[in-house]
Write a structure and sequence with these properties.
The structure holds two protein chains of two kinds. Helix content of chain A is 53%, strand content 11%. Chain A is mostly helical. Chain A has a three-stranded antiparallel β-sheet with strand order 1-2-3. Chain A starts with a helix and ends with a helix. Chain B starts with a helix and ends in a 34-residue tail after the last strand. Helix content of chain B is 23%, strand content 26%. Classes of the chains: A mainly alpha, B alpha/beta. At the A-B interface, helix 2, helix 9, strand 6, strand 7 and strand 8 of A face strand 3, strand 4 and helix 3 of B.
Chain lengths: 405, 160
């Protein structure tokens, strides 16, 4: 065999490979990647051979920043991680600090925390549903979802002044008590919500196009799901009954009556069903929480840690001194380390907090559910069509702010 | 919180091999077992297969301070989807040899978490299938979460 033919066959092989396989870069500006996620896809025709997520485009060094900010200053940083579920981020951060400080949180503050977190969960799921539908090509559901979300954001704005960055939960309780007439506004929202959810269900769930785009797509077995560390609706969509609100309860969740929806299909449809059912459970929890609201303190009795009320500051010298010291110097947190996890809208949101006794944490590490769930994307999408990758990303419900931190 | 259950798990580990657990800490309702760095994979494997800790909830590294010896630590937060307990394993690493064996063979989820720890703290995970930076660019200099790394970096980083 001559050298020439050898070269030729080599070239043909390369050409063959070029014709059958293609590497394309999906993102970081692709609209269905929910932010700045880049996927390197190796395709054979429309078939995905390999998918490699590339992240870090939104990295802002938050974990480094925590080490340079006082404990109470860190709360505002957490808002900016998972910007669809900021109250969940606030909650896990303040709970970790409260665990280190061993603070006792008053009943009313706990109820308000549950109430606001469940409202936030509905808002987060509404964004998920709207964008998931938009990705797959159903545009109208997006508007219905964002109308509901808007109502919840108005409620969050009423209590905290911020729509996307509330920083409402503080170490030791709440920023301030609920505004007058808040219960009435929540009840108004709750009265309309089941009908809105039914409307969405008929709009999306019953749609055969929707079903054929989601059923049997992006399958991950229960064993794989645990091995890849999936949590939240993604894990429950694979038939594992795990909800930290039920199994590691916090903020008094053990006293609420709600179900943990579990679906056995392991596909995009199952994860979709879990979230749809979860919204109804959140609605139930909000109803119970609003009935439980009793007048009482919303801040822990720890004057050296919790900011005093404005009224107290005008009347009491010691309140003024405490206020000055907390703002200017912060408060010392006893040496120790904790890992606190909550069931956020996307899964287990955990924070590892380590204190060296000073007013600033030594190390804060966030275990973002989006970060861990995204890792399983290659397993779910390899062997599927390229159009299904969009559906699978939607079903994972990722937020890049939390992945990159 | 009652931590007796967690101590039982640690005691079973000690029974299996007394060298596996150097020290046990119980604080704030959480139990930490300090494990020598050479046996972390074995300990994780036993905890996963025989004691039901099937979910690696979190893995994170920390710099304990420039003067500290050992300087680095890696924390493994284990969780069980069966009995819903949490256990923390801790590995201490010296500044000169920040090397620990990778647990990707035990839990696949450790892959990105170890890459993140390598990227930000500079812990080297031996046997990791794909140990490269994940959050910072590949040509980034240093490890940002080390205590001696300045908050604003050594020089303005250019993306071009």
């Amino acid at each position: 065999m001559s050298v020439a033919t050898e070269n030729l066959t080599g070239q043909v092989d390369v050409l063959d490979q070029l014709e059958s396989q293609m590497t394309i870069s999906m993102g970081p500006q692709h609209p269905s990647t929910h932010g700045v996620l880049r996927l390197e896809l190796v395709l054979d025709g429309e078939l995905v051979i390999k998918a490699v997520p590339d992240i870090g485009y939104l990295h802002t060094g938050m974990e480094k920043l925590f080490e340079y900010k006082k404990y109470q200053q860190g709360i505002v940083i957490t808002d900016r991680m998972d910007y669809l579920n900021p109250l969940g981020n606030n909650l896990v951060y303040v709970m970790a600090a409260e665990k280190l400080l061993q603070l006792e949180i008053p009943e009313r503050a706990q109820v308000v925390r549950v109430l606001m977190c469940e409202l936030q969960r509905i808002a987060s799921h509404m964004v998920w549903l709207g964008t998931h539908c938009l990705d797959i090509g159903a545009m109208s559901a997006f508007f219905y979802c964002f109308r509901q979300r808007e109502k919840i954001l108005n409620l969050i704005e009423a209590v905290s002044g911020g729509r996307l960055t509330p920083s409402y939960f503080r170490i030791g309780g709440l920023m301030m008590d609920l505004p007058a007439g808040f219960e009435r506004r929540v009840k108004q929202f709750l009265d309309d919500f089941p009908a809105a959810l039914d409307e969405l269900n008929t709009l999306v769930s019953g749609n055969t196009l929707w079903q054929s785009r989601t059923q049997g797509i992006g399958i991950i077995s229960p064993e794989d799901a645990i091995d890849w560390g999936l949590t939240g609706p993604c894990l429950r969509g694979s038939g594992i009954d795990l909800d930290l609100r039920r199994h590691n309860p916090y903020s008094g969740y053990e006293t609420y009556d709600f179900e943990v929806p579990v679906e056995l299909d392991c596909d995009v449809w199952a994860r979709f069903r879990v979230r749809m059912r979860e919204m109804r459970e959140s609605y139930k929890i909000v109803r119970q929480a609003i009935d439980r609201l009793k007048p009482g303190p919303t801040k822990a009795d720890a004057p050296k840690i919790v900011l005093p009320d404005r009224d107290d500051m005008r009347k009491h010298m010691d309140s003024l001194i405490h206020h000055f010291l907390i703002v200017a110097e912060g408060f010392n947190v006893p040496t120790g380390e904790v890992y606190q996890a909550i069931e956020a809208s996307k899964g287990e949101l955990g924070v590892y907090m380590k204190s060296n006794g000073g007013p600033k944490p030594e190390r804060v590490h966030f275990r973002g559910p989006s970060f861990v769930n995204l890792q399983a994307l290659p397993v779910m999408s390899e062997g599927e069509m390229v159009a299904d990758v969009v559906a699978i990303i939607g079903s994972l419900d990722i937020v890049l702010g939390e992945i990159d931190r | 919180m009652n931590t007796e259950v967690l101590h039982e798990f640690v005691n079973k580990l000690k029974e299996e091999n007394s060298a596996w657990v150097v020290d046990v800490k119980d604080a704030l309702g959480e139990v930490t077992a300090i494990v020598p760095c050479e046996s972390i994979v074995d300990v994780c494997w036993v905890l996963k297969t025989t004691h039901g800790f099937d979910l690696l909830a979190d893995l994170c590294g920390a710099d304990r301070g420039v003067e500290e010896d050992p300087r680095f630590e890696v924390n493994y937060h284990l969780f069980s989807t069966k009995h819903h307990n949490r256990l923390r394993l801790k590995v201490l690493l010296t500044e000169d040899e920040p090397n620990v064996k990778s647990v990707v063979s035990v839990w696949k989820t450790a892959n990105w978490l170890e890459r993140e720890t390598y990227d930000l703290v500079g812990v080297n995970f031996e046997g990791h299938p794909d140990l490269r930076r994940i959050l910072l660019p590949s040509d980034f200099d240093g490890h940002a979460l080390r205590k001696d790394y300045p908050l604003r970096g050594y020089e303005p980083y250019s993306l071009t």
